[in-house]
Design a protein that fits this description.
This protein has 281 residues and is an alpha/beta fold. Strand 7, helix 9 and strand 8 form a beta-alpha-beta unit. The chain is globular and about 50 Å long. The protein starts with 7 loop residues before the first strand and ends in an 8-residue tail after the last strand. The protein binds D-glutamic acid.
Length: 281
C-alpha cells in the first residue's frame, strides 16, 4: 500500500517539464511534487535511446527513493527511451509517460497535413512509430527536430531571434505543404508558443498534451486510492543536476514563481544529493 501523502515524482532533461508541471499544479493543487531537471545532461534529444534510458532509470530510482507514489515523465524523449522498461521494472508503480499528440492532431486536421516538432531521439523511438502507425493512417505527418531550440529555451531565450530562426526553418516548409495542425512533441516547446503562433498565424491549431497528461495523473491517483487529502496545499520541490541558481531564474521567468532549487549530482551513474550548499543560492 503506497501512502497518499507521498509526492509525485516528475523528471525532464531541464525546464521543458515545467510546461507539464504547470498543468499538474492547476489540476492537482493538493499534491506534493518533486521535479527533477537533469540539466547536467540537457539536451537529451541528440543522445540516443540507450543513453537517455540510463539517465531516466537512475532518476526514477532516485525519485522512488524519495518516496514517489507515482512517476510522471514530462519529457517525450525520456518517455521514448524509458517508459516501457520502467513499467517492467516497477509493475506496481503508476508511471505516466508522454508521446507526441499525433492522435488528437490526426482527428482534428482538416487539410490532412500535420506537423510534429520533437527531438531526434523521440522520432527514433518505437512509441512514436506506433502512434503514427495507429492514429495517422491517411494523414500526412511532417517532422522536424528543431536543432538547437531546446538549448535556446534552456538559456532563457525561448522567444528570441535564434529560436525564431529555428522555428521558421521548421514551420515554413510545413505551412507550404498545407499543414493546419502542429504537435508540440517536446515539452520545452510550449515555452516558445508566442513565436510559433506568430509564424503559423491564427488559423493553425497547436496541440500541447500537458492538460491531458495532468488529467491522466489525476485519474491514476484516484484509481489507486493515492490522491492527497483534498484541501491540502501541495508543495513543489525542485532539484537540478545543473546550476541551481540558473534553474531558479528560469522557473521565475517561465512560471512566475520564486522557488528554492536544490542541487544534486551524478556519481557512477547514480543521482546523489549534493553536499555543497553554495550551489543552493
Ligand atoms: N523536454 C524534452 C522532451 O519533451 C527533452 C528535450 C531535450 O532535452 O532534448 O522531449
Amino acid at each position: 500500500m503506497i501512502p497518499s501523502s507521498r509526492p509525485i515524482g516528475a523528471f525532464d532533461s531541464g525546464v521543458g517539464g515545467l510546461s507539464v508541471l504547470r498543468a499538474l499544479r492547476a489540476q492537482l493543487p493538493a499534491e506534493d511534487i518533486v521535479y527533477f531537471a537533469d540539466q547536467a545532461h540537457v539536451p537529451y534529444g541528440p543522445r540516443g535511446l540507450d543513453e537517455v534510458r540510463g539517465f531516466s532509470e537512475a532518476i526514477a530510482r532516485y525519485l522512488i527513493a524519495q518516496g514517489a507514489k507515482l512517476i510522471v515523465i514530462p519529457c517525450n524523449t525520456a518517455s521514448a527511451a524509458a517508459l516501457k522498461p520502467l513499467r517492467q521494472q516497477y509493475p506496481e508503480l503508476p508511471i505516466v509517460g508522454m508521446e507526441p499528440a499525433v492522435k488528437p492532431a490526426a482527428e482534428h486536421t482538416e487539410s490532412g497535413v500535420v506537423g510534429v516538432l520533437a527531438t531526434p531521439t523521440t522520432f527514433e523511438g518505437e512509441l512514436y512509430a506506433s502512434v503514427v502507425e495507429r492514429f495517422a493512417q491517411g494523414v500526412t505527418v511532417l517532422q522536424d527536430a528543431c536543432p538547437g531550440l531546446v538549448e535556446e529555451i534552456e538559456a532563457g531565450r525561448a522567444n528570441g531571434p535564434q529560436a525564431r530562426h529555428i522555428l521558421e526553418a521548421a514551420l515554413q516548409p510545413m505551412l507550404a505543404q498545407g499543414m493546419d495542425t502542429v504537435v508540440l512533441g517536446c515539452t520545452h516547446y510550449p515555452f516558445a508558443f508566442d513565436t510559433i503562433r506568430d509564424i503559423v498565424g491564427p488559423g493553425v491549431r497547436l496541440v500541447d498534451p500537458a492538460p491531458a497528461v495532468a488529467r491522466r495523473v489525476e485519474s491514476l491517483l484516484a484509481e489507486g486510492g493515492l490522491a492527497a487529502a483534498p484541501g491540502a496545499s501541495g508543495r513543489t520541490r525542485y532539484l537540478t543536476s545543473g546550476d541551481a541558481a540558473a534553474m531558479q531564474r528560469r522557473i521565475h521567468e517561465l512560471l512566475g514563481k520564486d522557488a528554492v532549487v536544490e542541487g544534486v549530482g551524478w556519481l557512477n551513474g547514480e543521482v546523489h544529493p549534493q553536499m555543497n550548499t553554495d550551489k543552493h543560492r
